[in-house]
Each structure stands twice: as structure tokens, then as C-alpha cells.
Amino acid sequence: MAGEPILEIRDIRKNFGAYQALKGVSLSVQQGEFIALVGPSGCGKTTLLKQIAGFEEPDSGSLSIAGQPMLGVPAAARPTSMVFQKLALFPHMTVADNIGFPLKLRKVDPAIIAKRVEAMIELMQLKREYLTRYPRQLSGGEQQRVALARSMISEPKLLLLDEPLSALDVKLKKVLQAELKRLHRSVGVTFVHVTHDLEEAIMLADRICVMRSGEILQVGGPNDIYYRPADSFVAGFIGDTNLLAVTVKGNAVSAPGLTAADPTVPAQYVAPGLGDGPALLMVRPELITPLESGQVADFTIDVTITEIFCKGGTVQFRSNTEGGAPLIFELPGASKQPADIGDKLRLGFPKRDIYLFRERVAA
Amino acid sequence: MSWYSDLPKFYQNQIKAMGLDDEGMSRRRLLKTAGAAAGAAAMSGLTFGRSARAASQMSYMCWEGYNDPRIIDPFKAANDVDIAFDLIVDSPGGFAKLQAGASREIDLVSSDMPWVTRMGPAGLALELNPDDYADVYATFYDQFKPPFEPLMSEGKTIGVATRWGWVGGCINTDITDPDTWRSYDPVFDAKNKDKICVMDWGDWPILPMALHAGIDPYQELDAAALEEVRKVLRAMFKNTRTLVADLTQAQKGLLDGSLLGCIGAGSYLTSAVRKQGHKNIIATVPDPKNGLKQGIIWVEATAIVKETDQPELAQKLLKHVVSKEAGHILSLLDTTCNVVTNKAVEALYTDEEKSILQTDYMWHAWDNSQMHRIAPNIDEMLAIWQEELAAAQ
Amino acid sequence: MNGEIDRSWRDPELLVKALPSVILQTAFFLAPLLMTVALTFQRTKNFQLTWTWSLDTWTDIFTKPHYWTILGHTLFMAITCVILCLVIAFPVAYALATRLRAFQDHVKVLITFAFLTDATLKTFGWVLFLDKNGAANYLLQQVGFPPATIDILFTDWATMLGMVYNLLSFAIFTIYLSIDAIDRSLILAAYDAGASKFRTFWEVTLPLARPGIWAASVLIFLLAVGVFLEPKVLGGGKSPMSAELIRQTFETRVNWPLGAALTLVLMTVAVFVVLLFNRVYSLKRHMGPV
Ligand SMILES: Nc1ncnc2c1ncn2[C@@H]1O[C@H](COP(=O)(O)OP(=O)(O)O)[C@@H](O)[C@H]1O
Ligand SMILES: [Mg+2]
């Protein structure tokens, strides 16, 4: 993925009155990359996209696309294209007119437009008879494809997608996620994809950029984000995970009820710069196993089961440690049920794939 | 003080005329409550009185002015009665309303005399016995004492005359010589183009023009005569600056000189401005032309509706309306001032009031005028009016 | 889709459900209309209706040209008024919905007040303003114009001025609502696709505001066809429009059959004009099947 950065954002700030929507954001995106912007609603994802697309101008900072400074360049002249959260298909134009609109504006010969539109329709796996229909006559997923087609027909350098899948039902969402991935591979355009769903981001993106209240918290590959979150905020985004409050001293951890033959944690499982003091120990539910008597593990902890959920393929157990902290673990659904609600149990987990990091830093 | 008291007089009159003044609004509210109460009574099948405040309730259909509180309030107090008003906007309309069933609600009607007289044959009026009104007639001008033929139908007396005036030329003596208005010729004079105002009041502007053309509109007319009426109206429209239905607009035009004269009105139009001090605005009556009197006398009269459920009270109110005190108020309203039929009122007038009413001119006007009736061919003449107006565009 | 529509006509349950509304519509619309039609076949004499069946009224209407002169004049004035209102209202509404967003609350209040203020008062206000020695001429004279420079009072120009003035707020409001309802992301999408501001206006804003423009046109047209105050007060009553003709016929001529017939003619012609424009304009072509 090495090469020229197609998008270079340096210390962009954007205020709405006294409200700081972007507090100095820097980001560099490589040509052909699929990058996902993830963050809770209101954290400034759309605002960042608008700065890139040119709908708004930042208060300070710099922004260049393919080496060209973009500040002051109107949206119409930027080599970007946006797929809007609400799709923004023109209701008074047919599907063909919608898709061909960017080319019509570029004064492309109508015959060529028609050909290109047909090619897009094919690429998007839409039926040809949709060409003469109006957007409202299509289903949500079909509209989505038309919006993508319209954005891609002008061959933009950057495709900006603002939560394009958030309004769809789960099944359709899955289909279109796969579709996006396929498109990205086949077209090779750089995608900047906004979502508030980290799972989606992990599934689609080469790199993920996690945002919180106008700032970028962490940028990294899916594994970095998943296994080595910068802080509890990022970790909390991932879904069900265990964050045990521990105390770090030297490179050994201790917590009430936690026992270990060797409590030291290798440096590769410790967030850079983490010193002595309170920290969080993250351990994924699927890595925790109940211990038969006599079995041993790197870390062991005694818990009481409080709830049991069936999650399709797996069964999730919720429990409390002796210190009162919640702990979740998951077992394959087919395996023998080790316990019932109220049972006491000894759990163990390996040293590998735990991660030690600091408590969320207040914004 | 009221919300509109800072506005120019013109506006104030306008607001009053639309019934948007405080008085008008409270009147509307009153009518509304009365209506609601009546509705409630009807719905519940109860028969309590229409008003909780007074012992009885009357409905009076009249022109604006007859409902002046200074006239009505003493009567209400003396007789413990509440009175709802149905104000007439135009006489035919009021008559049509009575015919359409309002006669069941209304007790007393004060309207233009021909329409009051017409209530006789239409079976809407209670026949009056002149002897019952001897006390009233005693102080009347002789001209209106019984038998007053215009208010009689098939020998029966239908109503009592109340207020009257004349229709001729209304002019501003500062800009036009009253002597030139001893005929209607200035209306047709090319040099007065765009200076003549015509009142848009149904038959009122048509009748004087017919008289000017030598046609007596109160007689049955043949096609040739109607053709003459058409010609005179066509000529009149040539010089017309504006048709006006609103008194104040005509008054303002006369005052500021943009209108030389108004046709189709008379003392009814000029008197309010005279009351404001503009004695240069007068109502004249042209001299007879070839033996045909050119002026027109209008009379308003009051009649009791046949279906009234309280004939005594209605008669009392009728007598009150023509009384000396009420007559004095009625003849000197803010919107219009007109002489009344009760001679006794004359004794109450100051010199100023006499001047406002042009009392020195009134019998001259009477002598040179036709008594207004419903013209037999009015339908045709109104149709001609519409045609010529459309053609004048 | 067609099947569904077909079925709905025959579905007895639906018919039963629709019955109350059908009855209401008959009672409130059809019955008065039929009575009006019946009225046109009666006669009047001396301000009195006589209940006899005759074609006099209709013969009168179809043989006298002046009813049609007035109707033609009315249509001309109404259509001119629609055009002027649109030409003035569109930029105002557009500016309100886009550039002046910060003030739009104030402006909405003002427009609402304009709605509420009595048209009679406003119209008489114009008389004072336009008069030969009214405010407008006074001001012009102060800056050196000869007296009575503006002499349009009691002409069709003054009527038109009053009509546009009194009806403009309806047009502004209707068009404003339609522009305001346009999703902002559609505008951004057009910019994003490479459209200039003007192109965006032309390709997106205007077509999407078209239903509002159309609604405003119909509304203004129907209101304008019915005006009587302006031609009477500002136009000096010299070139009356249909509503005044009808009022005159009902009130001063007390010729109800003729008044009813003229009303029917005006209604029919107005509806016909609207349908005609609808064909020309063809909502369907621009918006697709709804
Ligand atoms: N034009 C604007 N004026 C004022 N505040 C805005 C504007 N646009 C966005 N904001 C605020 O900036 C913050 C970030 O918004 P946005 O970028 O849309 O969030 P999201 O991450 O959900 O897309 C929100 O709190 C929003 O209210
Ligand atoms: Mg957003």
C-alpha cells in the first residue's frame, strides 16, 4: 500500500461559533487505500468529510489531494465525490439522468454518457430497465447502488462515503458491505468511508481512524484497533470485551482475585508509555476458558455466573469476580455447559493476546 | 381613545364603516353570544329568554345610525329590552333577506321608503293605523303627515317616514361655480373629463341621468326611452374618474379637489364633511329641465314586521325613533347628517347645525325633485348600466 | 399496481367505507351546486325571484358580449397578476430559504402579519398613497418632479398594483415552503457532481421548487379571479372584474338567476384555465409518477 499520499490533512480546525467540531485533525491517506472513519455520532466525521469535499472551509490547517492544495477550491472543482448519508438522489431525474449528471456537467457527448451510464449500471449489478425509472421507484439497496454509480462515474480520486449503509437493514447491509469491498478492489479508487460501526470498519477497511469529539484518537490497521486499542474508549467501541482494573508495578500486574504464577506481562502486550499505576487489562471473551480442577493457566480468576445468553454459534456467560468486577466469556455453543447461574467457577486465560493500557483520558 | 384614534379621520371612518371599531367589535361579540345562546336554547329545547340580562329581546334591521347608542340606550333602559341589530348594506339586499326568512327574527325595519312600502304587498309589514300614531304625526312636517301616499300600498299605511334628503350634484364651491350646476351639463362637459365621481349605488346614479336625458324613470319606459338612458350613461362614463361605493372616498376627492362633482348622491354625502367644518361642500338640486324636475327626494321609513312577537314594543320603538330627541341625534350623526320628518326637531338645531343640514335649501330641493320610488324598468336600466360600464373600459 | 386500483373500485367494503364521505361531499358541494344550476333557470322581475323555468338568463349571457368582455378582462388581469407575483415572489422566497436563513423567522412573522392584516385597510392605504395629491406624489414633488407625476389611481395599473400587493404574500409563502423543503444534501450533491451555483439552481432547485410554483400559480389565479376590492377601490370601479359583476348582479340588480349563472360561468372558465395550464405544465413529466 505504499506510494504517494492521495490525501494529506494537516492540523485542520473547524469551529461552529464557540463549538470546536474539529480540534486539529491530521491524517494521511495512501492512493488506493480503503480508510474508515469511526466514531460516535456527533464526533465530527461528517464535518471532516465536508472539509475534504469542499462544502465547508476549515478555520485553519491545510488539505491537499494528490499533492494539490485544496483550500479555497470549490467543491465542484475538487477530484472528490461524495455518497451522502441520505443518498441525495435527484428525485426529478431518472436513474440514468442521475448517474449521468456529473458527466453532463462536464459536457461529455450524450452518446458517451449513455455508454458510461450503462457500464456503471453493469458494475453496480443493477437491472437495465431501471435506467428510465425514478429513484423513489427503487428499493433502498438499489438506490444505494445508484448513488454509488453517480459518485463513481466521474472517476474521482477520492470517494467519500458518509455512513451510506446506516439506514439499511442488517441483511442488506451485509450484502452492500461485500459489494463495497468488491468495488474498491475492482476500481482501485481511494475510499474514505465514514461509519459509526467498528465491525463494519474492521471488515472493510485497510486502515481505521477512530475519532472522538473532534479529534483523532487512533489510526491503525484493523488488528491494531482490535487488539491494541489506544485506550478504553477505543476498546469500548469494539463490542463485548473485558476490561479489568489492575495495578501495574514494574511490568507485573495485580488485581483482587487474580492469580498468576508469573504476573509479568511482555512489553509487546503493553501500550507504549504505560508506567506504573492503575491500568486496564483487556482480555477478549473468547480467550477465557473455565478450568477443570488441576488445570492451570497463565492467569486464573474465580467468578460467580450471573447470566447466560445464547448467541447462535456461541454461548456467552456473564459473571462477577470476587472483587465485584464483571467478566464475560464465551464458549462454542456445541460444547458441554460448564455451569449454571449462581455456580462458582475458576477461569483462566493465557498471557498472549491480553493488552494493558491506560484508562480513557478525559477529553 | 381607541386603537385607531391616531389614524387620519379617513381611516377612522373606514374602520367604523367596516365595524372594526371597538363599538362594532363589541356589537359583534354581543350578537355572537346572543346567537350562541339562542342556539343552545334551540338545542336543549328549553325556552328561556334570548338574553339573560333584559326582560325581552328585539331585533332591528336598520341602516347604520339608527343603532346609535344615544338613541337606543335610553329606550333599552326604559323598557328593559335588549336590541340586536341587523345592519343594512343595501336596501334590496335587506329586503331580500327579509323575504328569505329573516322576517321571523326581525321586529322592526328602517330602510329606504320604496322598500318599506314594498313590504306591504310582500306581506312582510304589519299594517299601521295612522290614528295610533296621531301623537307622532302631530309634530311632523305637513309633507309627511297622513295620508302620505308614497308609504301606502293599496290604501294601507305601511310605515312612518323618518329621515330624508335630496339627490343632485355634490360639489366643492371653491373649485366649481354652483350656478353651473343648475343642470347636470357639467357632468358631460369634455373639459371635466376625469373629474366626475359617480356613486356606485345601484339605481341612484342612473335615475338622475335619465332625468337629465328627459326621461322620467318612474314611468313605464319603452325601448326608445331605454335607448336614451343608455346614451346618457355612455356619455356620463366618458367623463367619469371613478365609481365609488364608499362615502369617505367621495368626500375626500371632493375636499382635495381631485373630484369636481359627485353624481348619484346628495345631502347624505356632503353633510358629514360640512359637519367637520367644510362648508364649501354642498349638495344641490338642478333646476327643472323642460318641465321635468331633476332632483330626487329620498325618504327612509320605519315599519313593523308582520311576524313580530312583540308588536307593542315594536310600536314603542318606532315612535321612539321619530321622537324629537332621537330625531335630533339621528339627523346629526358623524357619518352622515340628514333632516328628519319631525318638525319639532328643528327647534333643537343651533345655527351651525342648520347650516350643516342646509335647512335653508331643503324645501327648495323638495320643490324641484321627484319623490323616489322603485322605477318600473329598473331591471333593464341596471342591465344597461352594466353593459355600458363594461363597454367604457 | 393496476390490479390494486381496479379492485378498490369494486371492493364493496371500500364502497361502504367511502359512503359517509360521498354523502358529505354531496351535501356540501353537489347539492348547493345543483341548486345554483337550478337557480339559473328562474326569472326575476322588479328585484323579485319568480319560480318559473326559462332559458332567459342563459340567452342573455350568450347574446350579450359585455359579460364576456368583463370575463376576458378578468382572466387577463388574473394571469398578469400570477406572472407578476411569481416574478417577484420567487427571488424573495429563494433568498429567504437560502441566503437570508438568519432572518427567516422574522420574515415569517412579517409575512404572517401581512396575511392577517385586513386587505381592505391595505387597499385603502394605497389609495392615500397613490392619490394625485397623495404621499407618493408629495415625495416625488419634494425631489423635484412636477405635481401629480404618478397618476395611476383609478386605472387598471392601480388595480394590478393592489392585486399583486395583496396576493404576493401567498405566493412568497407557498414558494418559500417548497424551496425550504428541498433537502440541502441535494444541493451539495449537485456541487459535488461539479455543478456551478447557477447550474445547481437551474438543474436542481428550480425543478424541485416547481410544484410550489405551480401551487402558488393556481392559488393566486383563483384568488385573483375573485378579487373585487382592488378593481373597485383602486381601479375606481370603471373596469370591473367578474367578481364585482357578480356582486352587482346579486346585490344591486337582485338578479339571482343571472348572478348564479355568471358564477357558474366564472367557475367553469377558471377551472378550465387551470386544467389547460396543468396540461401545458404537466407535473407528471417533471416529477415522474407519484
Ligand atoms: N453547520 C453547523 N453548525 C453548527 N454546528 C454544527 C454544524 N455542522 C456540524 N455541527 C456540529 O458539529 C458536531 C459534529 O457534527 P458531525 O460532523 O455531523 O458529526 P458526525 O460525526 O455524527 O457526522 C455536532 O455536534 C454538530 O452539532
Ligand atoms: Mg454524520
How would you explain this protein's 3D organization?
The complex is a heterotrimer of chains A (363), B (393) and C (290). Chain A is built from eight helices and 20 strands. With 363 residues, chain A is α+β, with helices and mostly antiparallel strands. Chain A folds into two domains: 5-227, Rossmann fold (3-Layer(aba) Sandwich); 232-284 and 294-357, no CATH class. In chain A, a hairpin with a 2-residue loop joins β1 and β2. Chain B has two domains: 9-164 and 299-353, D-Maltodextrin-Binding Protein, domain 2 (3-Layer(aba) Sandwich), CATH 3.40.190; 165-297 and 358-391, D-Maltodextrin-Binding Protein, domain 2 (3-Layer(aba) Sandwich), CATH 3.40.190. Chain B has 16 helices and twelve strands. In chain B, the strands form two sheets. In chain B, strands 1, 2, 3, 6, 7, 8, 9, 10, 11 and 12 form a ten-stranded mixed β-sheet that branches. A two-stranded antiparallel sheet of chain B has the order 4-5. Chain B is globular and about 60 Å long. Mean pLDDT of chain B is 87; it is low at 1-11 and 24-52. Chain C is flat and about 70 Å long. The longest helix of chain C is centred in the N-terminal third of the chain and has 33 residues, at 65-97. A two-stranded antiparallel sheet of chain C has the order 1-2. The model of chain C is unreliable at 1-7 (pLDDT under 50). The chains are: A alpha+beta (363), B alpha/beta (393), C mainly alpha (290). Chains in contact: A-C, B-C. Adenosine-5'-diphosphate is lined by residues 16, 19, 21, 39, 41-47 of chain A. The site of adenosine-5'-diphosphate (ADP) has 11 residues of chain A, from β2 and α1.
Largest sheet of chain B: 10 strands, mixed
Average residue-wise pLDDT of chain B: 87
Gap from first CA to last CA of chain A = 32 Å
Strand content of chain A: 25-35%
